[in-house]
Amino acid sequence: MAAVLGSSGWWRRWWWRGLLTRDGSRMLLLLLLLGSGQGPWQVGAGQTFEYLKREHSLSKPYQGVGTGSSSLWNLMGNAMVMTQYVRLTPDMQSKQGALWNRVPCFLRDWELQVHFKIHGQGKKNLHGDGLAIWYTKERMQSGPVFGNMDKFVGLGVFVDTYPNEEKQQEAQKRRYSPGVQRVFPYISAMVNNGSLSYDHERDGRPTELGGCTAIVRNLHYDTFLVIRYVKRHLTIMMDIDGKHEWRDCIEVPGVRLPRGYYFGASSITGDLSDNHDIISLKLFELTVERTPEEEKLHRDVFLPSVDNMKLPEMTAPLPPLSGLALFLIVFFSLVFFVFAIVIGIILYNKWQDQSRKRFY
Ligand SMILES: [Ca+2]
User: Fold this and answer.
1) Residue 161 CA to ligand 1 centre (angstroms)
2) From the CA of 160, how far away is ligand 1's center (Å)?
3) Measured in angstroms, how far is the CA atom of residue 137 from the centroid of ligand 1?
């Protein structure tokens, strides 16, 4: 058993997942019965199947990474492909880099497993700034939010290694009220419809959906993050203690994300720096059953939003006009126009008649 489960990363991940499911023993039995090969695998209490989607995944030896239009993944800025990882930024000041999937994702329910490593020379709080994982409408747009554009449209998950807000408070000799301070490195999530700015000076506090402390720097074991999106439920978990267990970080129901967005990862360094490496990104399609009511509720959306959370400036666009509505508007406009011309002609003739009478 140990030989089977321990030999490849794939099995290990499944083994860990098995430990986490409520029905772990059943999962293990299933693994042993099915032997090796690709999914689908049944997870949990018989509701979910998973399939690895190669077109949205990245792993060694990174053959599909490059600049060409045939590449599955494109690099930006200072990002570099090495043999064991894709380095978003090196441990040097003022660098930024990104990695973007070229294929839009049209899955309704998915899970992204991120194997990453953040390490560098900097001692406590003298390193930065962290990395971000994206599921957004736009791709390959460099900017100030961990190397990506501000006012993005979609989901951003940030592994923030530098406490900007805390450092400012310290400089102003102010203290946090208890329960407000966040311990860094810190993972947080943000959903944006393109109207919100990420507040870098406050580490995204005004717009965060949730977050947790994640001590992830300079570790000698592998660190993972998983972003799961199932039935509009966003769950973020991490495996950063070297214990091969997923630990809860963020859970938000009612997250509406459109389909057809792109997965990406980005990072930035400023005065402080770190190596920000992506070792693998594995996207799984989750096949879940929906009741007819859920089917109705989970219809496609055109803009990202979060239920019961009034984010400032969040405004939905007017629904696009249907063909019939457009036809009726044009038709009645024309009728009105013709009617106005006819009235105009009649009035003009009457006025002419009257002025002629005045002459006689
Ligand atoms: Ca920060």
Assistant:
1) 6
2) 5
3) 24
Tokens of 236: 């973020």
Q: Environment class of residue 210 by beta-carbon count within 10 Å: exposed (0-12), middle (13-18) or buried (19+)?
A: middle
Task: Give the type of residue at 24.
Answer: G
Residue with tokens 């043999």: 83
Question: Cα–Cα–Cα angle for 73, 76, 77, nearest 5°?
Answer: 160
For residue 212, the CA-to-ligand 1 centroid distance in Å is: 14
Query: Are 148 and 266 within 8 A, CB to CB?
Result: yes
CA distance 199 to 201: 6
Instruction: Give the integer Cα–Cα distance in Å for 192 and 194.
Output: 5
Secondary structure (DSSP) of 245-296: --EEEEEES-EE--SSBEEEEEEE-SSS--EEEEEEEEEEEEE----HHHHH
Residue 321, pLDDT score: 63
Q: Is there a contact between 107 and 262 (Cβ–Cβ < 8 Å)? A: no
CA of 273 to the centre of ligand 1 (A): 12
**Please, what are the domains in the chain?**
55-289 (2.60.120.200)
Q: Ligand 1 center to residue 158 CA distance, Å?
A: 9
pLDDT digits (tens, 9 = 90+) for 229-243: 999 999 999 999 999
Q: Ligand 1 mean position to 223 CA, how many Å?
A: 20
Q: Taking each helix axis as running N to C, give the angle between helix 24-34 and helix 9-20, from 0 to 180 degrees, rounded to the nearest 10.
A: 150
Interval 285-343: pLDDT, tens = 999 999 999 999 999 999 999 998 775 554 444 455 667 777 788 888 888 888 888 88
What is the distance between the alpha carbons of residues 91 and 222, in angstroms, rounded to a whole number? 19
Cα of 102 from ligand 1 centre, angstroms: 28
288 CA to centre of ligand 1 in angstroms:
36
Q: Which residue from 223, 221, 252, 222 is spatially nearest to 236, judged by alpha carbons?
A: 252
Task: Give the CA count within 13 Å in the CB-facing half-sphere of 243.
Answer: 7
Of 57, 107, 124, the residue nearest 283 (C-alpha): 57
Q: What is the pTM of this model?
A: 0.76
Quote the ligand 1 centre to 240 CA distance (angstroms). Answer: 19
